[in-house]
């Protein structure tokens, strides 16, 4: 062996002894050790290696990595290089820990993950940073598991089973003893609860808590999406019973305590298929020429009282979940679709924000409080839109909800047209003040009676949608201002939205410049104006959906908090959620707090409400993920029936393992793997957002239009793989 090689081996062995000693001490960080105990734990019994341990211990003490607490007894210096954070796993089995006090995330190699899972709160030890390299560390303990229930497929052996968890970030399956399998059969999709992960075991141990069904079946897959995020799909019986027992009749005694607005023209505008109408508008012209416009919201807090099991269930859910084929409501149906739903020709208890307004959208006077209202009519957005476009009240059969033509009241036509006019003025003013306009196209599916997707259509926002949106924004903003501007400060639930991150904006700028668009990043006002211009410029162009999606990603996430920082995207200094208490718990909290302060109540404890806000934000995130997964599932289901077709798509993402393509006609996104691109060997070029052929130098770049066909549509793994046919020009003009 050459001297050089020997030297390297020697330093490598010393390094591994150092790591082993620190590893042993980290596992039992409060305990002190002498060299004999360390040697025993390392399985070392020869004098040479024992001497190495003694020497390494004194070197580590000199470097202050460990401290000598007694003669020959050492303990880890616990204050050095230890942090807490959240683990973000990669699909390759390594991870990053996000630590608040550190600028950069800490890289954790797979051999140092130490049984932690994605999303767990962990304690880490950070090694010294090497110059120009990212911090690297090791997980020393798991403080909090993000979740202990997982969805997967049971693989049954004779005396035990394994659940293969369906999550790209999950690197282990879960071992289940025979007596903990229950009624599950081999190949079933199940929910497994992790119990423990014994020191010497390769996999964690668990027991099966629910059998979801056979993989690939519709209900199995929808229920597994909910189960994956820990979302319920039905109410406990005692909650249903409690809700059924509530007196939902309208009482004369209660009406006396409220402002009676039953005589004022009131109506709802909602999606065609809506069942829970939680907001209505009222309209009347005043003698002074101004208009009184009321925003009336279902008075959920009248029925859902604090301290009841109904309130506890609503808080735990925190939001309704809108999947492609169903709604998982926050409240039982007796409330969400009946008592609290502002159905036409019914009296309802409501919580209202009533404004005296001018034609120019200025608020001259405002009133907040509990009311009783009577809805004179119910419109779908399409019907209200028809009134706006034709300025008349004759609704044809193909637009009407009932499928029959009818004539609506002239007073309602006047109200819709006037409110639309005021809404347009308010919207323009918001835009001038720096609000950002996201009119993102929504993908909707036509389902048959077996929940099979038979068609795809796109939902866009028109004037009728914007009319409702503008008055809801007004109510949310004015309620938040009313409480937020009071002295002394009162605790309230705000909907907050931070400014976009500079790095993300710079990345967006470099990306959109490829399509010939520019951003002005000089100051906040210019940023929001040029983002609006960008979103307008791309409308109808091939890159629209890509730019819309990437612009949304540059935005911070909106969240709930008692600490008001304003709402950047809406350009409001105060904003809350007040208008959807049937489907959002923060709105229920806002109603209760508003009433409490209207009754001259003192400010409530901030910490208690901040914790509730955090919970609501977390649950909103889970619901959004579940909704996204259900759309992805339905897209794959739809594509399974279109195996032999060619589709025109746009490259929507580029990675080192493949290119993502979004089909223009139905917005389904799938992947073309680099290894399946046979015409050349393609390499990923991150600077160009492209893959480049080694021999041909052919480039496939973000935003390019390409033709693809379906290679594999896997419902169970929710994967859609495409074959690449070629660039649009090549395919359409082969010569």
From TrEMBL:
Keywords: Cytoplasm, Exonuclease, Hydrolase, Nuclease, RNA-binding. It comes from the Bacteria. Its EC number is 3.1.13.1. It catalyses: Exonucleolytic cleavage in the 3'- to 5'-direction to yield nucleoside 5'-phosphates. Coiled coil: none annotated. Pfam families: CSD2, OB_RNB, RNB, S1. It is found in: Cytoplasm. SUPFAM superfamilies: Nucleic acid-binding proteins (SSF50249). Residues 644-725 form the S1 motif domain. HAMAP family: RNase_R (MF_01895). Belongs to the RNR ribonuclease family. RNase R subfamily. 3'-5' exoribonuclease that releases 5'-nucleoside monophosphates and is involved in maturation of structured RNAs. This is Ribonuclease R. The gene is rnr.
């Amino acid at each position: 062996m050459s001297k050089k090689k020997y030297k390297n081996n020697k330093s490598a062995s010393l390094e591994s002894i150092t790591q082993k000693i620190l590893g042993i001490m980290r596992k039992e960080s409060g305990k002190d050790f002498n060299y004999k105990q360390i040697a025993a734990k390392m399985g070392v019994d020869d004098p040479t290696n024992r001497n190495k341990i003694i020497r390494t211990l004194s070197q580590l003490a000199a470097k202050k990595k460990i401290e000598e607490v007694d003669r020959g007894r050492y303990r880890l210096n616990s204050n050095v290089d230890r942090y807490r954070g959240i683990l973000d796993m990669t699909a390759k089995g390594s991870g990053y820990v996000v630590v608040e006090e550190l600028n950069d995330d800490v890289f954790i190699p797979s051999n140092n993950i130490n049984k932690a899972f994605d999303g767990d709160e962990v304690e880490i030890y950070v090694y010294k940073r090497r110059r120009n390299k990212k911090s690297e560390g090791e997980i020393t303990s798991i403080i909090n598991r993000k979740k202990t229930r997982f969805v997967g497929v049971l693989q049954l052996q004779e005396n035990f089973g394994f659940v293969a968890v369906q999550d790209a970030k999950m690197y282990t399956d879960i071992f289940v003893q025979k007596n903990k399998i229950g009624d599950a059969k081999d190949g079933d999709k199940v929910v497994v609860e992790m119990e423990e992960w014994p020191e010497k075991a390769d996999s964690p141990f668990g027991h099966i808590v629910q059998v979801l069904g056979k993989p690939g079946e519709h209900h199995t897959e929808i229920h597994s999406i909910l189960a994956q995020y820990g979302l319920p799909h039905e109410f406990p019986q005692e909650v249903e019973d409690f809700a059924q027992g509530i007196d939902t009749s309208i009482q004369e005694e209660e009406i006396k305590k409220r402002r009676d607005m039953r005589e004022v023209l009131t109506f709802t505008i909602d999606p065609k298929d809506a069942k829970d109408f939680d907001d209505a508008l009222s309209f009347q012209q005043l003698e002074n020429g101004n208009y009184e416009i009321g925003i009336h919201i279902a008075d959920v807090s009248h029925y859902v009282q604090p301290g009841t099991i109904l309130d506890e269930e609503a808080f735990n859910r925190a939001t309704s979940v809108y999947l492609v084929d169903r709604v998982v409501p926050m409240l039982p149906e007796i409330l969400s679709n009946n008592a609290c739903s502002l159905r036409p020709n019914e009296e309802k208890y409501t919580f209202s924000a009533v404004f005296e307004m001018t034609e120019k959208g200025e608020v001259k006077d405002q009133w907040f409080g509990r009311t009783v209202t009577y809805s004179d009519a119910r419109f779908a957005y399409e019907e209200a839109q028809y009134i706006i476009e034709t300025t008349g009240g004759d609704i044809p059969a193909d637009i009407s909800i009932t499928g029959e033509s009818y004539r609506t009241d002239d007073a309602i036509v006047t109200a819709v047209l006037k409110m639309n006019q005021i809404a347009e003025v308010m919207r323009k003013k918001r835009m001038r003040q720096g609000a950002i306009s996201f009119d993102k196209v929504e993908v909707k599916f036509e389902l048959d009676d077996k929940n099979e997707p038979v068609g795809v259509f796109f939902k866009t926002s028109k004037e009728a949608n914007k009319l409702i949106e503008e008055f809801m924004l007004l109510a949310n903003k004015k309620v938040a201002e009313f409480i937020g501007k009071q002295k002394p400060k009162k605790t309230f639930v705000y909907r907050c939205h931070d400014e976009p991150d500079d790095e993300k904006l710079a990345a967006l700028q470099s990306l959109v410049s490829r399509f010939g668009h520019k951003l002005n990043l000089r100051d906040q006002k210019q940023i929001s104006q040029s983002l609006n211009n960008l979103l307008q410029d791309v409308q109808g162009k091939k890159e629209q959906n890509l730019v819309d999606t990437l612009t949304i990603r540059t935005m911070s996430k909106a969240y709930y908090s008692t600490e008001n920082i304003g709402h950047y995207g809406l350009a409001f200094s105060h904003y809350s959620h007040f208008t959807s208490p049937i489907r959002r718990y923060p709105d229920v909290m806002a109603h209760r707090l508003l009433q409490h302060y209207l009754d001259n109540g003192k400010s409530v404890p901030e910490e208690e409400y901040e914790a509730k806000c955090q919970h609501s934000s977390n649950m909103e995130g889970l619901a959004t993920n579940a909704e996204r997964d259900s759309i992805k599932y339905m897209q794959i289901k739809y594509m399974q029936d279109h195996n032999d077709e060619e589709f025109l798509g746009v490259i929507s993402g580029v990675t080192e393992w493949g290119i993502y393509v979004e089909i223009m006609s139905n917005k389904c996104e799938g992947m073309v793997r680099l290894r399946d691109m046979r015409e050349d060997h393609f390499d990923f070029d991150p600077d160009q957002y492209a893959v480049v052929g080694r021999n041909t130098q052919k480039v496939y770049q973000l935003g390019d239009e390409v033709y693809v066909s379906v290679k594999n549509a896997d419902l169970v793994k929710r994967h859609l793989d495409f074959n690449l046919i070629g660039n649009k020009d090549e395919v359409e003009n082969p010569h």
